[in-house]
Design brief:
Two copies of one chain form a homodimer. In chain A, about 30% of the residues lie in helices and about 30% in strands. Chain A is an alpha/beta fold and about 325 residues long. The longest helix of chain A is centred in the last third of the chain and has 14 residues. Chain A starts with a strand and ends with a helix. At the A-B interface, β13, α8 and β14 of A face β13, α8 and β14 of B.
């Protein structure tokens, strides 16, 4: 089968399409013929040699999510039938024509979702939904999403809005903030330079009537994290999901104490299979119905064929994206 | 009645014993004739003008905990009888001959506890127990306590040990570590200077067989907090209880992310009455039986009469204490 292979650490030029052996499903796994998949920042980091795949995942084939048709069933996998439309997350290996996944770690693709959209769903909606769950999100709460124009940011914004909360967000550009308003963003805070974050707490006070944010979903880290700590409501929760803006950061512990904050670091990829199944099950129960009725939807920045994987990486690295960079498997029709 | 009064912000010399009006119990409150009370760091901060009493508490009479006899009952307070031995926490006002408290925010003093010991119990055992509860402590877990020789530190060490966990601790001096071993400490880490904390993660690896700490109770903050973040097990929990070693601190967000840490800031004093009742109820249910059977016990550094309040403050400020600085109300016999 065709697959993206990381031939060595480096820039997009180290990515090649190679012919590799098709994976075999384990007893409780399904083999999925991938129709669409998408890029995540973890793929960029893995390509740079800074984020090795977790044990058990293909080590040199990137790709954390997929949508496709069930092609083969493992010996004890009775939950799905051949041809079923499914989507899910894996520890790696999804940028390929075929991928295997545990039968309980995939969800049905609702009929209204086209393949390209379905490929853009699993990672961001599972991540955003899981983060809101960990934060104990309740209707009426004020939620700030850092990097609101990112895939996870837009999924979170839509979920908060659909579930009765108020969604706020940061972005480097006013353009992304305007576009995010179509997806439920109430009000945005522009951060052209990190120094602008010194005014985040004033923004929080202003939009929440002095209360502060109940929840921050922080995909950036660095100075965004520090500024969030100063902008929280009493008993607020910060869910740290990413650190693209920096790791070492200066934090005011007295704010954590005095406001009785909860800070939770979360990553999806490194979780155990059982935890991934739990997150996917919650997603299937609570988010897939919202997708089916159209109250939340995938947001696609751009679509590349698998062969254009280098261009797709360059696009995500540009930081100009709004929503997901999708990869479509052109050889699909030939393979069924 | 006699009470300690903070006459202005400053050193121990601003504390005076004054005759002030006896408080009146509200409908659901009891008036307690205080036999013993104790000092907390919050009293020092309040004296310095850096920690005002919460709304509803006496503003210039310090004191967060008490043990004594029920002297009067509010109109709707039927839970206790006059003469009952009770202990509890309040937002302030306990360094006095009488204090009022909600009837559900006090617990019975077990018969085996002497007054001096009882006065040293509530704040530290409620704080330590509540922190372990928030951390989701389970038997078998590895718990690091920063400032193991403090009142809360020794209460936490005893609770962890009594409930089947492994207790580790830091202290500035080897002497306190040795003494803490009598209270269940398995192994201690000496921090004569903050630079020593750079070796904390190696200590954590060594004593936990490479796993890291499941829980850190951090009474110090500052560099202790930063070093803790580097020393945690996967899904470890840091409960930040105090910040005597500093507020602004440099933290590695990648560790919070990668280890999926939970960080929880907690203070007892500023909580709502309902929350204080909940914490006291859990303490009465789960800790008082351990006190009654002697498997945990108050640790007393020194006992001062109320009149020696200035000396008591100097003692706590010396950072030489091991356990609680207790205040005894000498005029008690005369008042009953």
């Amino acid at each position: 089968m065709k697959a993206v292979v990381i031939t060595r650490s480096g820039g997009p030029e180290v990515l090649e399409i190679q012919d590799v052996p098709k994976p075999q499903p384990g007893p409780e796994e399904v083999l999925v013929n991938v129709r669409n998949t998408a890029l995540n920042r973890a793929d960029l980091l893995q390509r740079l040699g800074r984020y090795p795949a977790p044990p058990g995942a293909p080590q040199n084939i990137p790709g954390l999510e997929f949508a496709g048709e069930v092609a083969e069933l493992g010996m004890n996998a009775h939950r799905w039938q051949k041809g079923d439309r499914v989507m899910g997350i894996v520890g790696g290996g999804a940028h390929a024509e075929f991928v295997t996944a545990h039968q309980d770690a995939v969800a049905a693709v609702p009929p209204n979702l086209e393949w390209s959209g379905a490929g853009a769903v699993p990672e961001v909606f599972i991540t955003a939904h899981d983060a809101l769950q960990q934060a104990g999100f309740k209707a009426g709460e004020n939620v700030m999403v850092h990097a609101v124009g990112s895939g996870v940011g837009l999924a979170a914004t839509q979920l908060v809005s659909a579930l009765g909360g108020r969604a706020f967000g940061t972005s480097r550009t006013p353009d992304k903030i305007e576009r995010a308003k179509e997806f439920g963003l109430e009000s945005g805070f522009e951060v052209p330079e990190p120094i602008a974050l010194s005014r985040l707490s004033a923004f929080a006070e202003s939009v929440t009537g002095g209360r502060g944010f109940d929840i921050v979903l922080d995909l950036n880290g660095g100075p965004y994290f520090s500024a969030s700590v100063e902008s929280m409501a009493l008993r607020g929760r910060i869910i740290l999901i990413g650190g693209v803006a920096g790791g070492m950061t200066n934090v005011d512990l007295y704010q954590i104490l005095g406001r009785r904050l909860h800070i939770i670091g979360t990553v999806l990829r490194a979780r155990s299979l059982q935890e991934k199944i739990a997150a996917t099950t919650a997603f299937a129960r609570e988010v897939v119905p919202l997708l089916a009725q159209g109250s939340v939807q995938p947001v696609i920045d751009s679509i590349f064929s698998l062969e254009k994987i280098q261009d797709a990486h360059r696009r995500l690295e540009s930081n100009e994206t709004f929503g997901k960079v999708v990869l479509t498997i052109s050889g699909f029709a030939r393979k069924v």
